[in-house]
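--- STAGE predict ---
source: upstream dedup step, 1 unique chain passed
mode: sequence only
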Amino acid sequence: MSDNNDLLQSLYNIVGDLWGSEEKPGDRSTYVKAGQEADAFLHGRKDVYAPEKAQETSPKPVEAPEAPAQEPLRVAEAKPAQPTLSDLWTTADTPVDWTDALVKTEPDDGVTPQKKWSYLHQMAPDVLHGDLKAYKAVIDTLDPLDELRTFTLEVGAEPVNADELQAWFLVDPACMQGENDAVYPAVVALRIARDLFALLPVKTVSVEARSGSKVLMKVALSRKQATAFRFGFADPAAFVRECGAQFPEEEKSEKSEESEESNEEEAHGSEEE
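--- STAGE serialize ---
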């Protein structure tokens, strides 16, 4: 046993000389520690005989560079194709069946979103009673004339009574060129009427085409005129005239020309006398 203690003491002294240990020889545990450190020194294990130096000299782990943040993949929403002016009046919104909306809490057509149907169901009692506030709220909320903003500077509608809506639009000069000068107001007016008839259970829709403070055209259409006609096979300008459309500015111009012609004739007659 004394030989082992002498060996440990020797090892302890060696380690103390090498690393400046402040510990003093004493009990067996001190010798054991010294022996372990000596053994570690012989085998190159710095984490045992000099842990503070092992931390200084051990290579630091190389951190992998952070990958650049990637933006989430964005999928563009498909938007319905906008109709052209030539076919604008041949299409219209899907009609709302307010009686169906009154009795059913969920749509069964496979097309109408639940959120929209819930709103229709909520508004159905007042709409079917001809409540004008309900009419206005439905127009403002569902915005049936949104598509017409592509072809106008401004467009709007409001209820007159339980059976009639009044609509108007400001003409877009870019759309009134060449042959469109006569066709354009008629096309937009017919599409406005058809969309409003599809939305609310009214009998008549009146539409005015305006340019500033001037009224270029005004027409009152019945539900039958606006919904039961085969629009793809007719001239829209001729059709609105058949429905009683008025063109105040055109009529003023015609009257002015007639007046000028009459004055010229009178002047010519006076010269002959």
